[in-house]
Each structure stands twice: as structure tokens, then as C-alpha cells.
Amino acid sequence: MGNYIHGYLTGEQDRLLEQAGMLAPLIYPWVDLAGRNKVLEVGSGVGAQTKVLLELYPEINLTCIELEASQIEKAQVNLQNYPSSQFRIIQQDAQNLALEEKYDGAFICWVLEHVSEPQLVIDSVFNHLSPRGIVYITEVFNSSFHYFPQCDGLAAYYNAFNELQKENGGNPDIGLQLGNLLKKSGFENIELKPGGLHLDQSQPALLKQMVEYWKKLMKSAAEELILSGKIDQATVKAMEADLDQLAQHPEAVFFYQFIQAKAFKP
Ligand SMILES: C[S@@+](CC[C@H](N)C(=O)[O-])C[C@H]1O[C@@H](n2cnc3c(N)ncnc32)[C@H](O)[C@@H]1O
Asked: What distances in angstroms separate CA 92 from CA 19, 185, 239, one per listed residue?
């Protein structure tokens, strides 16, 4: 896949593992796949969420779908300590899934933002679920990002980041559309839940940790952003300096919401 904003370099593959570990306490409390033994994981990347799922649900049997061969290779390494009978990774485009089996659960996390036709992914998942099968989705809502103090370098970088995502055919606010997408595919009992972070100096350690994480997330797109001509190296440095300053600022605020959705196939 050509235009993936984060790229497929080793540093980015390691970032996905760190991201899953760090955000798991925010994502998984709302996910309940207990008793759902045949589960489809869509856009499984380097297996970062797969690891969490295998830890949380020792009985689970996962079919992971990933488009990019280098992500699959890395996932095989990351998952080598888990029983191979419990997961398999299939290289397919999630917009056009063709699997022989039906599943009683599906899990999608941080994928639809990168996809030009997210409705096709949800339709595909719908077609591969058994009746009363459940889907859980967690996706970005980048316009929700608010912070204090004002940071011009971060603002310029973030703007370019989201613009490039859109130019690449993705949608940095796809989280907002999850309910409508699920309804159009035929899902029922749809529930939506905003989740995320509202950090300030009342939790300085957590604030610092999140700002460090955010810096890595932003930086993962630096090469693509520079190549696109949207920013230069100075904007990367300014973004990093702004985030460092934000973590120290006595009035610092860091606010970001993602959206989770849960729905059933009738
Ligand atoms: C940000 S990563 C998230 C990976 C994993 N879900 C996680 O949270 O660690 C998005 C992944 O979706 C994959 N992807 C993007 N479009 C896809 C498609 N059409 N079909 C299958 N995988 C896709 C990318 O290759 C990438 O590995």
C-alpha cells in the first residue's frame, strides 16, 4: 500500500506495539469478546492488538486480516510466543474480504482512518459475521484535539498531518461516522462511546507520558509530510519543541477523544 501516513519502517512497527500497550486501559474496558471464540481482527498491523486480545481472551481464535506483507512478517515475530493454533494472519484488502468462514465477533482498531472506502470494510465484516455476531470498532476523531498553551509549530504540523491523511484517501475524523456506517451495512443495536484523555498538571506524570507518546505518533508521519511538501524539517523541530514545552507548562491541557462503536448483526 503506497500512501500510509505512518509508513512501515521498523520504528513505526515498534511504535504500534507501544501504542497498543499504552492505550489498552482506555480501549478494552468497553470491549467484551468473552465467549466469542471465532473473531476477525481487521487491519491487524504488527499484531499489537492481537497480543492484547490473546492475553485477555485465552480461549479466543483469531483470524487477522492485513494488507501489507511487511506488517504481517513483523506480526509473526511479535506473536511467536502465542500458540499458532490460536491465530492466523491472512493478507487481504479488508475492503473486499473473501473468507470461507463466518465469525461470531470482529475487532477493528485505528484502521478505517486509512481506508478510502470504510463502508466497504464494514459491509465486508457484516457479510462475514454469523447472526448475532458482534463488532467493536475504535477510531480517531482528530478534530477533538485541544491543548493549552497555544503552540504554533504543533498547530501547523497537526494541520498538515490531517490534510495529508485526507489527500491519501483517509479520514482523520472517521470516528464520528461509525454509527452511520454501521447502520448502512445493516447492523443493529449500535452503541457509540467517546473515550480518550483529558490531562493537565493535576496528573503531571500521565501528561508527560502522553505528550511523549503523541510526539512519536506525530513524528511517525514526518517523512511523508516532508515528502509531500506540506512541512519542512523546521516544522518537525517546532512541533517537538512545542510538545516538550506543553508538558512543562503550569497551565497545560491535553484533550483528545477517540470514538468506540459496538453493534450486532441481526
Ligand atoms: C495504524 S495501523 C493499526 C494496526 C493495529 N490495528 C493496531 O492498532 O496496532 C493500520 C493498519 O491497517 C492496515 N490497513 C490499511 N488499510 C487496509 C486494508 N484496506 N485492508 C487491510 N489492512 C489495511 C495497515 O497496513 C496498517 O497495518
From this structure: 24, 20, 36
Triad 109, 115, 117: Cα angle to 5°: 120
Tell me, in angstroms, the distance from the centre of ligand 1 to residue 151's CA: 30
Using a 6 Å cutoff on CB, does residue 65 contact ligand 1?
yes
Nearest atom (ligand 1) to Cα of 65: 21
Give the C-alpha separation, 223 to 233, whole Å: 9
Kindly give the confidence (pLDDT) of every residue in the chain, 266 residues in length, as a single tens digit, with 9 standing for 90 and above: 446 667 666 666 777 887 777 889 999 999 999 999 899 999 999 999 999 999 999 999 999 999 999 999 999 999 999 999 999 999 999 999 999 999 999 999 999 999 999 999 999 999 999 999 999 999 999 999 999 999 999 999 999 999 999 999 999 999 999 999 999 999 999 999 999 999 999 999 999 999 999 999 999 999 999 999 999 999 999 999 999 999 999 999 999 999 999 999 99
Tell me, in angstroms, the distance from the centre of ligand 1 to residue 111's CA.
5
For residue 106, the CA-to-ligand 1 centroid distance in Å is 14
If you classify domain 10-264 with CATH, what class do you get?
alpha beta
Place of cell 477493528: 108
Hey, whose CA ends up nearest to atom 13 of ligand 1?
Answer: 43
Domain residue spans in the chain?
A: 10-264
